[in-house]
Automatic annotation (TrEMBL), chains A, B:
Keywords: DNA-binding, Transcription, Transcription regulation. Residues 64-83 bind DNA. It holds the Pfam family TetR_C_7. Residues 41-101 form the HTH tetR-type domain. Residues 15-37 have a biased composition (Low complexity). GO terms for molecular function: DNA-binding transcription factor activity; transcription cis-regulatory region binding. This is Transcriptional regulator, TetR family. GO terms for biological process: negative regulation of DNA-templated transcription. Residues 1-47 are annotated as: Disordered. PANTHER family: HTH-TYPE TRANSCRIPTIONAL DUAL REGULATOR CECR, HTH-TYPE TRANSCRIPTIONAL REGULATOR RUTR. InterPro entries: DNA-bd_HTH_TetR-type_CS, Homeodomain-like_sf, HTH-type_TetR-like_transc_reg, HTH_TetR, TetR_C_Proteobacteria.
Amino acid sequence: MVNWATDDDPHRRLPLSTSPTAPAAPATPERPVPARTGGRAGKRQAITQGARTVFGREGYSRTSIEAIAAEAGVSTRTIYNHFEGKDQLFSDVVHDSAGQVADAFIATVEKQVTGTDPRTDLLALGRAFVGQRTQFPEHFAMIRQIKAEVQHFPAAVIDAWQQAGPQRVQQEVARRLQQLADAGLLRIPEPARATVHFIALVTSEITIRPYGSPALGPAQVRDCVTRAVDAFLHGYGTDSAAGAPR
Amino acid sequence: MVNWATDDDPHRRLPLSTSPTAPAAPATPERPVPARTGGRAGKRQAITQGARTVFGREGYSRTSIEAIAAEAGVSTRTIYNHFEGKDQLFSDVVHDSAGQVADAFIATVEKQVTGTDPRTDLLALGRAFVGQRTQFPEHFAMIRQIKAEVQHFPAAVIDAWQQAGPQRVQQEVARRLQQLADAGLLRIPEPARATVHFIALVTSEITIRPYGSPALGPAQVRDCVTRAVDAFLHGYGTDSAAGAPR
DNA sequence: AGTAAAGTACAACGTGCATGGTAAATTGGG
DNA sequence: CCCAATTTACCATGCACGTTGTACTTTACT
C-alpha cells in the first residue's frame, strides 16, 4: 500500500540535520551476532545481492520480485519476510551498496595516494575514482536508474543515498585536492568547483562515450585518466589566450 | 508482439554505413505538404509532443499509452492509428526530439560564436551547450531514461538517436575548438579528447549536482560556464607542478 | 532428537496496462 | 452540403506482477 515509486506527490523534503549514522540499535541480546555468512542472515545478504544485480540490469519498474528471488535463489515469500515490499527493498539496497562503494573508494585512495608529487597523486586519485565504475558495474547501473527516476523516489531515500555514497566520495576528493593546494602545488580558488571539475574530467570519456559501445579496456581507462589529469593541471589554452582567469 | 523493451536478447548490431540522412521519401504526391499545423498531421504532432513530455517525466516502462493520450488530448486509439505501438512511438519521439535539439544548438552556435577572441567564443559555445538542457528539459529527462535503459532498447534505435543528436552536437563543438586551435589560440593535441573534456567541464556542475536539489538559476549557470571555461583554458596547476604534459 | 524459527510451494486476488475490434461521431476538403 | 478519412468511446482480452494467506518442509540450535 506504499508504492511511492508511482506516487503522485513525490519529493517531500527531509531534515538532514539528524545524525547520519542512526543511533545503534539497543543491543538485541536475542541474536548475539549470528554469523553474518550463516543461514538466516545469509538469506538477507543473498536477497540484497541479487536485488542489486537485477535492479541494475532492469531498472526499478521493470524488476519483478520473482526475478530477484530467482537471482538470489530464494522464494518470493522469503523476500516479503525480510522486507516490507519492493520499494523498501530498493532503498535498502541502494543505501547499502552506496556505502560499500564509498568505503572501497576511500580505502583505495588511502593506499594509492602516496603524496610523492602532485601529478602522481592526481593520477592515483583519478584512477581510484574511475575504478569504482569498473569494480562495481552493477551498482552504477543502479545509480543510472536512480538518476533517471529521481522524481519517483521520495526525497528521504535520495538524501540517504547521497549521504551514504556520493557525498562521502566527493568530500574525500575535495580533501585530497585541498591538501595539494595547501602545499602550493595546485591553485584552487574555489574548492567545490575544482572538485567537480576534476571528477567531470576523469569520468568524461566513460560518461560521454556513445551508449551501447563496448566498455573501454583497462589500458584505455588509464590513458583517459592521464589525459584528464593533464587537462586538469594545464588546460588547453596558449600564452596568447586573452583574459587570464585572474 | 514486438515489445523489444523487455526483450531477452537485446543489442543486435546495425551497420552504420548507410547514409545518416535517410534518402528523401519518394515525394508522396498524395499529400502535397499538408499544413503541418492542420488537423490530421497536427494530431501526430500533438502525440509526439505529449509523448515526449510523459516519457521524460515517467520513463519508458512507467508511461502508459493512456497517459500520453491524455497529455496529447487524443484518444488512445488514435495513437495506435499513427504508430505501431509504444516502442515505435518511443523511438520516433527520441529521434525527432534529438534532431530538433541538435538543430537548435547548431543554430545558436552559429549566431553566438562570433570569433572575436578565444575566451569569448568558448563562453558562447559553453553557454549554448548548457542552454540545451535548460531549453529542452523534457528532452533531457527522456535522455536520462535512455541512458539508464540502453540495454533494453535495440541497438538500431540507440544508433539512430546518437546520429541524429549527440554526434552532430559533439561534432559541432569539435569543429569550433579546432578552428581556435588552427588559429593558434588553443593547444589541442587530441581533438576528440579535448571536445569531451570541454563538454564535461561546462556541464559538470549541472550533472554532478546532488539529485533532487533545485535547478540552478540562469546567473548561476552563466557562472558555472565561466569557471569551466577558465578551467579548460588554464587548468589548476601551478608552475611548480612537476611533469608537464609534453 | 526435538523444537521453534525460517523458508518454500502454491494458489489467489486485484490492478494496471498494451493492444485490438467495432460502430458511432466528427471533421476537413470539394 | 456531402463524402471519405479520421477520430472517438467503449468494450474485451490477455498478461504480468505486487502482495498476501496457508499449510508443508527445512534448518539451526540445545
